[in-house]
What we know:
It is a single chain. The radius of gyration is 27 Å and the shape is elongated. The strands form 2 sheets. Strands 3-4-2-1-5-6-8-7 form an 8-stranded mixed beta sheet, sandwiched between helices. Strands 9-11-10 form a 3-stranded antiparallel beta sheet, covered by helices on one side. The chain contains 18 helices and 11 strands. It has helices at residues 4-20, 39-48, 63-69, 82-98, 144-164, 167-170, 193-199, 212-223, 273-284, 305-311, 324-336, 346-360, 374-396, 436-440, 453-463, 482-498, 513-525, 551-559; strands spanning 181-185, 204-209, 237-240, 247-251, 263-270, 287-293, 406-411, 422-427, 504-506, 529-533, 540-544. The protein folds into 2 domains: 82-454, no CATH class; 480-560, Ribosomal Protein S8, Chain: A, domain 1 (2-Layer Sandwich).
Amino acid sequence: MMDDKQKKQKTTKDIRNAAAGSQQKTKARKGNNGVLLKKYESVMLDMFSTKSSSISSKYEICQEALYNLTPRYSKLPPFINDTDKHKLIDNAKLYWTSRGLTSSSNTSDDKSPFPFDKETSLPQCGCIRETSNNTRDVGDVKDTKRAWRKEMQLANLIQCVLTLIPDDILLNEKTNKKTFRIIDFAGGTGHLAVPLALLLPQVEVVCVDLKKYSLDLLHKRVDGVSLTSKKDDSVDSIQVSTALPNLSTYYGSIQTYPHEFDIGVSLHACGEASDLVLRKCLNQKASFVVCSCCCGKLQSEAKNPYVFQSTGGNEKEISYPQSKKMIASLEKGAESNNSHGNPANKKQQEIAFDEIAKASDYSEIGDIRKPKNACRRAAKALVEWDRLLYSKECIECSVSHETPVNVILSRMVPWECSVKNDILIGWFEDLCNPYRTQSQNNTIFGYDTSCDNDFKVALNHLFGNNTVSPGSTINTQNDWTTQEEKEVTSEIEQFLVKSSVSQEYRFSKGMGARKRKLIHSVAEKLSLKHWSEGKGSEKVVVIARQRTPSQVDININNKT
């Protein structure tokens, strides 16, 4: 007998299978280069194509989809000028020394960025690295490489936050008495909130988190005392730091934070938590800096990991995709693969987006700037673009949208400081425009074309080399190097020289999916038949000549 939980899981699975039933026949599909596509690649192919596989074996790019859905990256906002930076540091040092905190210059090295550099010399509670005398404070990172990456991640977000603050408030020249408040949502132990509070004594900084233990560690770092010694440790409670009066913590959820704020920021809030931050900021018409994490947990059957890890609750609040344009695109793709020609339902759209989200949960930092896994990074960019489109649509659909939101998608510098390096930056008022200095200098701000490579590689993989305009120097390979392709080509050519038309060539067992994919691609280019046999570790790629002599036969014979 099944209990209620098992019955619910079975029902959900049955509904999902029924919704996906019409797509079963189109799972094994090929792109224009002849390589078998993964599920998420098939979804991307449908999103950007004008034809379905049932109509033609070749696919053409839909220009409307290309315009609406191709992620466009902007350069990271410029850092504040040196004069303002030195004034900021001087004001900050006066503040924290007056509070009894001392600079700790031995917790940085020559590679540490502002504000973790030796010039700024933040107090230990605002630093990432362990001290040089090997005495570790709460939250200190021991590994040098990991510490550098964390510093760079935080430095990128701090740079964005500083450029969103109006000039009079940033330099402590404000004339009004209204509190300017920055919220670090899902801020954990305060690695972002504490440096911001130290740098900006004129600003109130609040660290919001559902984990009481994390906030407990924050207060131990800054105040030397934990929340367990406080009287009020209930959910939805606020505690003000004793060492830094402009720093406080809120023990509660993103949605329930009760006060107005001016900037919302989050670094690697897990799953839908990043979207909850975006929606909170949009509702408040507050500027935002959001760098997401764990996009694979956006899948329809996944739960809310941020809430679960904190409270044990595990229900999602947001359905995906969010934007109308992304929904329309996935609906078109689902309909083109519906064997009965029926309109796509919401479940089919969710299944399609699930494949994109699952692929986007990508963590191979060594592949950055390389063609390998470019399609997965392109899937991550699509998830972020859906968020950007939703943010714009959300304000446009509101009753009063006199102040439209400006949203851009940018990327951490350098990219290698995190695989999850995409940053969404939004603002409502011109005085918060992070590029306002460039506008005043009549400097034309352009897109960051260096971020386009992954998406171009992905489109070439799906649609063929005609995707990129003639003369482009972009590397159009995907998942393998030029040398690897030459080696496979040479092996195949040796077989063609020695074989007859009826012979087949079986590659060795034990090759990974990437190597098999390469073999299929080379075989397609050489106009050969190619297929896979076996399962698991026994799976092999087999190639054979076409029954009629092809141009490749002539070319090979000429070589001999």
